[in-house]
Specification:
Length: 183
Amino acid sequence: MHAITAANLHNAYGGESMAHMRYKTWGDVAKQEGLPNVARLFRAIAAAEVIHANSHFKAMKEQAGDWLCTSMAVFGIGASSQNLQGAINGETYEITEMYPTFLETAKLQGEKGAQLSFHYALASEKTHAALFQKAKAALDSTKHDAPLGAVHICDVCGWTVEGDIPDVCPVCGAKRDKFTSFA
Ligand SMILES: [Fe+2]
Ligand SMILES: [Fe+2]
């Protein structure tokens, strides 16, 4: 594998792994604050980040060895409104900077596996940013838990949707039985 795409996969793996952990921590905070829907949203999206981390890990299956990972990570534990802003910041970085450049580099280098993995993550993070933004707006304006329908995660690509599960995932084409629900 080309060195730059390999480094991008290592770093994206690190970034997704840390996002998973921080959403679990922020989900616990929301639960303690009496915000079960915000807690559930963090839990669902934490699970989606695991799908991306695994996908990146598998794209590097030929690469045994030890690597240094450097990733943007949002730190801090505040009230849920602040934590949601941290989540929005992290997702926005991934959507606007990290995955578009990683994806273009993988295309340029003809790295098909990495390309697919970055494409899945980029498409999913857009749904995450939107869900976090909606939850934060509701929480900030009402000071009560955000309204939230069932949240469904595509087990193949991590695409995330609130409400009904589509017949096929719009990103990867997986059938509806491939979704995990957080209701
Ligand atoms: Fe995400
Ligand atoms: Fe999918």
